[in-house]
Write a structure and sequence with these properties.
The complex is a heterodimer of chains A (about 250) and B (about 200). Chain A is of the alpha/beta class and about 250 residues long. In chain A, about 35% of the residues lie in helices and about 25% in strands. Chain A has an 8-stranded parallel β-barrel, surrounded by 7 helices. The longest helix of chain A is centred in the N-terminal third of the chain and has 17 residues. Chain B has one domain: 3-Layer(aba) Sandwich (Rossmann fold). In chain B, the strands form 3 sheets. Chain B has an 8-stranded mixed β-sheet. The chains are: A alpha/beta (about 250), B alpha/beta (about 200). At the A-B interface, α2 of A face α1, β8, β10 and α7 of B.
Chain lengths: ~250, ~200
């Protein structure tokens, strides 16, 4: 059967990997090409690159880094950040991305997901959603988690899948950086509504958190950043541990 | 030199990078003289069967590829593998190249367990059903990366390997000098590179 996936996420700003807590307090961590090489060798199942640069110069630098990473990493590569148009899809796919993650771009332009799915196939379109509880309801947040869009997250996600998103990254703002486990309540609610692969993001702090995640039905992958970057949790021992828990892992 | 057939389908970045990393020279081309000069051929592809087959027909290369495949190894990857079959039922019935006996069918319709997700996306273990020079550098049980919603069936006589996903999903086929992989060797880490290395030595 298909394995569960462990996915390190690299947030890249001005050509360097950074990672904050609750989306704030970014600090410089490392060179993305070096890190991609490290994760490839360590047995990561996939890599996600988010371009959190705002400037055009930063974007050119990112494109250059992406090409360098894609040339030597032969596992699936998902790229997100600043994807607003089909031209943006084209730009990152040409640099070696396999899947493209859309977030704010899909909120601003509801036609983006259907158009991209039509052109590149559902499997290429990943809908990434930042979710936060407001008065007990799951709401979609935009602008890196700073702005409440007023949209119900479960409805938004379900509609995104209907429009052609082939995979979901569900990022809980409430648990992001807290390192006390994934937001299982949110993830279960999403899994009850859709049948595409779900990549859980936000909250992993230790290897047991991944085991708990994969005990929940409908969870396909666990994504994390800082705990992998700091080697607080190492990929290979994590996968060995999960396999010992009876979870299918590629080793 | 490996000729990668250019018919306007798919992203060839990873494939050309993988071959380069292995020291295998390749060229993305639609020119018969270059394909003729190559010592092996790769037929790539992503997207829908009917559309891809139409684009391939439009190049006018089909009869030429057919004659070339009798002389040198050809590898179809993902949709490129599916095109090797006799026909597909993806959005209506479409005729394929017919190198491999069998058909391309919908995974969603055939899966007995409807809770399994389609597309079949991710890493799955290869069960080697028949030893082959293509597997020279891999062992049974190694993982390959799949992304697809349709699969090859009724092709037991050509199947070299499969992967379990509620049913045996055809992973690798062969007929004469024509091979095909449903998974993406260029996205399957070290395992995939070793399969491409073996292809380069066939």
């Amino acid at each position: 059967m298909i394995t569960k996936r462990i996915i390190p996420c690299l947030d890249v700003k001005n050509g360097r990997v950074v990672k904050g807590t609750n989306f704030e307090g970014l600090r410089d961590m490392a060179d993305p090409v070096e890190m991609a090489r490290y994760y490839n060798a360590a047995g990561a199942d996939e890599l996600v690159f988010y371009d959190i640069t705002a400037s055009a110069e930063g974007r050119t630098l990112f494109t250059d880094i992406l090409t360098r990473v894609a040339r030597e990493i032969f596992i699936p590569l998902t790229v997100g950040g600043g994807i607003n148009t089909l031209e943006d899809f084209d730009r990152v796919l040409k640099c070696g991305a396999d899947k493209v993650s859309v977030n704010s771009g899909a909120i601003r332009n509801p036609g983006l997901i259907p158009a991209a799915a039509q052109k590149y196939g559902d499997q290429c379109v990943v809908l990434s959603t930042d979710v936060k509880r407001v008065d007990g309801r799951f709401m979609v947040f935009a602008k890196g988690g700073r702005e409440n869009t007023g949209m119900d997250a479960l409805d938004w996600i379900e509609q995104g899948v209907k429009n052609g998103a082939g995979e979901l990254v569900i990022n809980s703002i409430d648990t992001d950086g807290v390192k006390d486990g994934f937001d299982l309540e949110l993830l279960d609610a999403v899994a009850a509504r859709v049948s595409v692969p779900i990549i859980a993001s936000g909250g992993a702090g230790k290897k047991e958190d991944f085991a708990e995640l994969f005990r929940h039905k409908g969870m396909d992958a666990g994504l994390a950043a800082s705990i992998f970057h700091t080697r607080q949790v190492e990929i290979r021992p994590l996968k060995e541990y999960l396999r010992s828990c009876g979870i299918e892992m590629r080793l | 030199m490996i000729a990668i057939i250019d018919y306007g389908v798919g992203n060839l970045f990873s494939l050309t990078s993988s071959l380069a990393c292995l020291g295998l020279e390749s060229r993305v081309t639609g020119r018969p003289e270059e394909i003729e000069a190559a010592d092996r051929i790769i037929l790539p592809g992503v997207g829908a069967f009917g559309d891809a087959m139409e684009k391939l027909e439009e190049t006018g290369l089909v009869p030429f590829i057919r004659s070339q495949a009798e002389k040198k190894p050809l590898l179809g990857i993902c949709l490129g593998m599916q095109l090797l079959f006799e026909k597909s039922c993806e959005y209506g019935e479409h005729k394929g190249l017919g190198f491999v006996k069998g058909e391309i069918a919908s995974l969603a319709e055939d899966l007995p367990d409807k809770t399994l997700k389609v597309p079949h996306i991710g890493w799955n273990a290869l069960r080697i059903r028949r030893q082959d020079p293509l597997f020279r550098y891999i062992r049974d049980g190694e993982y390959a990366y799949y992304v697809h919603s349709f699969y090859g069936k009724n092709c037991a006589e050509s199947t070299l390997a499969d992967s379990e996903y509620g049913l045996p999903v055809t992973g690798v086929v062969r007929s004469g000098l024509v091979w095909g992989t449903q998974f993406h060797p260029e996205k399957s880490g070290d395992t995939g590179l070793r399969i491409l290395k073996a292809f380069g030595e066939l």
